[in-house]
Amino acid sequence: MLHTDIPTRGEILALASTIEPWCVSVYTPTEVRTPTPDKNRVAFENQAKQALEQVTDKDSRASLEEEFADLIDDDEYWRYQSRTLVVLATPERMRTYRVPNRLEAGAAVGDRFDIKPLLRTVTFPQDAFVLALSENAVRLVEVTPDEPAHNVDVAGLPASLTEYISLPGMSRSPHGRLQGTEGRKVRIRQYCRAVDHALRNMLSGRDVPLILAATEPTASLYRSVNSYPGLLAEEIAGNPEHLSDAELATSARTVLDGHYAGELSELRDEFEQRRSDGRSTAELSDIARAATYGMVRTLMVDIDTPVAGTVAADGALTLASQGKATGPGVLDEIARRVLLSDGRVLAVRAADLPNGAHAAAILRYVPQLMTT
Hints:
By secondary structure, this protein is an alpha+beta fold. Helix content is 37%, strand content 20%.
């Protein structure tokens, strides 16, 4: 079983905001089931040693070595791993994340953290809620990347249409003498509204997709009263009464994959459409400057390919050879600046970017600094 610690958006922003003389970032691919239990720990220890050799300040290095030694000696911690261990440390504090994504091994030392690979975990998260809704039963199932799917207790959630109709105060004749098919639809819509009301308190403020598993007319009637903005258009087909939690989770992951693929396709289409009016660019120098001045609304950035260099305070880009690279690279710094200006950053694979570019940006407005 995988054990995950996925950073929240607030944590990502805090990491992006961190600028210290010594920031150490270590990414170690890990195995959950391995015949050599210490394999993960040894791999991490070797990476940590190589990274700490780059810390030239004696006191800072001593503090970092103590933090890393404490983690390496924590037997209980190493018993529970996911697919990649991410450790981000300064001499004052260490943060660790066990993420379900398989990320490339790497270590960086600089005045800020290398957060670009970590963004993959929050670009297309595999968390969701499934609302299994029928006239005879309703349940909310939580789906996560590594844990078995499970029912969530929701206060006030009606058990069924029949139970809801039998509640005190519910008249037996909707709209007076309205009966038959139309009367039944009225009752189902009222039932769906009660379900939505119960979910509202639990889902309020969350940014987790909600996937509906229902048949018609219940599915359409629920959508007509739904108030949660995270309800996906894609649904799980079939009567949810006949599907186990595990089967719902399997279908939900397929829905999520299709949803994210569609979202990425729409962004690529928008990128191409915006080229004609100057509101998109794949030129790194232009993106760096736009990110510096808060002009980037959406950034797609290559998670796999490092680009060595620096971005100056005014956004000027200076590329360097890979052999001279130290600390996080250009793409990481651009992503950091977009995040801090409340832009959206998607860490994607190279094949998802246009024409072999390292990054692609959709801008908030036409930047005068690029047209003059």
